[in-house]
Amino acid sequence: MGSVAFDAIETPFGKTDKIIGGAGTYIALSSSFYTKDQKIVAVVGDDFPQSMLDILASKGVDLEGLQIKKGEKTFFWSGRYHNDMNSRDTLVTELNVLEHFDPIIPENYQGVDYVMLGNLSPQVQRAVIERLEKRPKLIAMDTMNFWMDIALDELKKTLSMVDVLIINDEEARQLSKEYSLVKASKVIRAMGPKYLIIKKGEHGALLFHGDKVFFAPALPLEDVFDPTGAGDTFAGGFMGYIAASDDTSFENMKRAIIAGLALASFSVEKFGTERLLEISRNDVDTRIEEFVALANFEMVQTVG
Ligand code: AMP
Question: Measured between alpha carbons, how far is residue 211 from residues 36, 140, 207, 235, 250 in Å?
């Protein structure tokens, strides 16, 4: 679940009018490379194009939990990236249909094993968990500084109910009030999630669990056009891989992180969801091999 939205994006390379975005959209498109059995919980207005709903349906996404509100407008977000592409300013957030979003879990959604709570208000994320009759095998969630600023107590309640938290380094520092990410990871995991993934933009991602840490680099890319949705694409690839392999071990989470990073590396190559819509599973598999080659080496210890 997550926002299904219109975005307007400005980067040093160009500007878009309203294009389709939203955390839920990126998560669904990205996880569809690994699983054809997906169910979305979200809300749009009747201004949202049927063509995108058809694309999602063609990728196996069950849309029964996607509410279409007559006479209302879809969530709209607009952002501008700085020259380094690692940071951005939010220019506009129009909640529209998200303002009174009451998530519906259709009967045939009950019993799901894997849940990815995309970026939305922590109250709505929690409502989804509470409306599931059976505890899923793994619940992961994303959040952002916006919710830490305006709904920290609600966010902490939701955090106490999930297994995996996926956030970026800046958000981890804000949430924990610690600069060191190792210290931050301890503070945040004490809030509930046993697993913490910290995304570091063009520098890859870290996974913390117990006293184990795993680091995966991001692929050095020649062109980064638009980082919007990279985090959600990562989350979708991560959960899609876990669901497809039905394995929540730490070792498998490492592989899922590589799957997520590979998908995110495609997503940033063009504006919005464009690149995710043109690549195939074969392209993803080839890129994963590049990841393996990037970080793989055999060390020979010399005798001193
Ligand atoms: P990311 O670049 O991965 O952080 O995600 C970007 C997406 O998040 C955009 O497509 C936006 O539509 C969506 N988004 C931005 N702000 C919010 C918000 N407050 N709640 C839900 N979704 C949001």
Answer: 34, 20, 11, 23, 12
pLDDT of residue 61: 97
Query: Does the pTM of the predicted model rise above 0.90?
Result: yes
CB atoms within 10 A of CB 69: 17
Residue 86 has a pLDDT of: 78
**Closest Cα to atom 14 of ligand 1:** 22
With CA atoms as reference, report the closest residue to 99 among 117, 126, 132, 76. 76
Amino acid code (one letter) for 302: T
Ligand 1 centre to CA of 166 (Å) is: 14
| Ligand 1 environment, Cβ below 6 A | 3, 5, 7, 21-23, 77, 93, 119-120, 146, 228-232
Instruction: Take atom 11 of ligand 1 and give the residue whose Cα is closest.
Output: 22
